[in-house]
Amino acid sequence: MKTNLFEVITKLDKLKSIANNQGLKGTVQLLYRRIVSKDKTVRRKISARYLVGEGIEIGALHSPLEVPATAKVRYVDRMSVAELRKQYPELANYQLVEVDIIDDGETLGSIADCSLDFVIANHMIEHCQNPIGTIEQHLRVLKSGGILYMAVPDKRYTFDVSRPVTSLEHLIRDYTEGPQWSKLSHFEEWSRLVEKVSEEDLSTSVQHLISIDYSIHFHVWTQVEFLEMLFYCQRTLLLPFKIELSQENASEFIIILRKT
């Protein structure tokens, strides 16, 4: 039976703790780094090919995209670094990028129309309550010919593996009616299938996550379903872009859109 990448990484995490006690720590850590760092190499090569000029990266946290010398990046997040530290205590041992612009990454209300050469949104779109609306806003701030660079986790290889793929119909409704109708169900699904919360504790878990405005993965995809959403945006909504690249990359896929 074929083992997916998520299972491999999970097993390696367990092996690392065992290896600490058996003198194999260095070997296991080397194997782990080779597997999980492959995505950064591919990201960097694609970045060098497409990014130039002035742009932004949204939600970079501790893992900003490495860009070529021809690209100048400002960092956007919904909170200051101090607030992000409180929101993500699991990142206590990591250095976070300095936030240049505090804004809602879904709407980019403080960014002028047609003002940027590129927008980087790695592992960001799944956190958006209205993904189609987010792509529309990211295109809004791009100049003609500008690049939207997205790395999107493939749900089959992450902790979202048990969750159903978000349907196109659901995404269209979030876009046309607003996402409030589905917000509660997303938090319930997250608590059940990712955090494995019991039904008895479900309501308490959901209310806690909502109260702290925790940024869950609201929507999940594989590459096929994500492209289906993009084709809808092109053909039905007539959003101004062409798909320059769609490439698998370890546990994610990278999408490059060029504004037309």
Q: Would you give an account of this structure?
A:
This protein is α/β, with parallel strands linked by helices. The chain has 2 domains: 5-36; 38-157 and 218-259, 3-Layer(aba) Sandwich (Rossmann fold), CATH 3.40.50.150. The chain contains 9 helices and 7 strands. The chain has a 7-stranded mixed sheet with strand order 3-2-1-4-5-7-6, with helices on both faces. Helix 4 links the parallel strand 2 and strand 3 (101-102). The termini are far apart.
Sheet of most strands: 7 strands, mixed
Domains (count): 2
CATH H-level homologous superfamily name of the largest domain: Vaccinia Virus protein VP39
Gap between N and C termini:
44 Å
Arrangement of strands in the largest sheet: 3-2-1-4-5-7-6
Number of helices: 9
Q: Which percent range fits the helix content?
A: 40-55%
- Per CATH, the architecture of the largest domain is 3-Layer(aba) Sandwich
The overall average pLDDT, rounded, is 89
Order of helices and strands: HHHEEHEEHEHHHHEE
Q: Radius of gyration, Cα only, in angstroms?
A: 19 Å
- Low-confidence parts: 1-12, 14-20, 27-33
Count every beta strand, where a strand is a DSSP E run of 2 or more residues: 7
Indicate the CATH class of the largest domain. Alpha Beta
Q: How does the overall form come out from the CA principal axes?
A: globular
CATH topology of the largest domain: Rossmann fold
User: Helix/strand/pairing class, anyone?
Assistant: alpha/beta
Q: How much strand content do the residues show?
A: 15-25%
GO molecular function: S-adenosylmethionine-dependent methyltransferase activity
GO biological process, one term: methylation
Protein name: Class I SAM-dependent methyltransferase
InterPro entries: Methyltransf_11 (IPR013216), SAM-dependent_MTases_sf (IPR029063)
